[in-house]
Amino acid sequence: xxxxxxxxxxxxxxxxxxxxxxxxxxxxxxxxxxxxxxxxxxxxxxxxxxxxxxxxxxxxxxxxxxxxxxxxxxxxxxxxxxxxxxxxxxxxxxxxxxxxxxxxxxxxxxxxxxxxxxxxxxxxxxxxxxxxxxxxxxxxxxxxxxxxxxxxxxxxxxxxxxxxxxxxxxxxxxxxxxxxxxxxxxxxxxxxxxxxxxxxxxxxxxxxxxxxxxxxxxxxxxxxxxxxxxxxxxxxxxxxxxxxxxxxxxxxxxxxxxxxxxxxxxxxxxxxxxxxxxxxxxxxxxxxxxxxxxxxx
Length: 297
What we know:
This protein is an alpha+beta fold. It has 2 domains: 3-205 and 268-294, Creatine Amidinohydrolase (Alpha-Beta Complex), CATH 3.90.230; 209-267. 31% of the residues lie in helices and 27% in strands. Strands 7-6-8-16-17 form a 5-stranded antiparallel beta sheet. A 3-stranded antiparallel beta sheet has the order 1-3-4. Strands 2-14-10 form a 3-stranded antiparallel beta sheet, with no helix packed on it. A hairpin with a 2-residue loop joins strand 3 (81-90) and strand 4 (93-102). The longest helix is centred in the first third of the chain and has 24 residues, at 3-26. The chain starts with a helix and ends with a strand.
């Protein structure tokens, strides 16, 4: 990796950390999920970067992918475990970071939040050039077990690439039989999810996050302005909020047409299958020849 690209990633990481922490401070009882996500996105833009994927805030048993719609009136409540997951890119170079706010600092939520953070730090300590991915995964699982909690077995971290949020190889939260190793120059997001439930997620609810993969244009019959806005994402995910400047009926017609043509991926909220609360912590790392650098600290 060239020094200029690494510095671009570092700057994206600084922006992501600032926007994440600012958004977290806004998560209080009565605050709007949509307004918190929009504030984090505004902070990213204010600092000269761009959104790699729509800001998401999943609460309690919803582990990931809850993205407020333009009309969402949901507010945080005392006792919520509120995740805030944001992605930032500069010139296509992506970082991904998340944290969990124990709204009202209720005692029952502290162990989950502390465990997710401890598992992330253990994984970072285990990571390094040439390290097997399963060693990183084992550090996550062992840490959560010490808290008498479970990892989410079918959620995982991932490598990131230019204009791409999820690249192989994955970084599972439990060790798998894989010979994959962390290589010098890799950029990856590690994201432990902690729960006292079964540790499996399933889709539930309507998707608000979508992705139009790059490829040959076939826009016949589609609203050209909306299609151009989606193609400008260069394959990065988007939400209905990103299309708020267009008539809602045209947005829905365009999304439905793209889904029917098989051109659009849709990501529904992911919930813990036994209905138990989930906490998440996430950082993006760069693997250097001498060790790892946390880009989103």
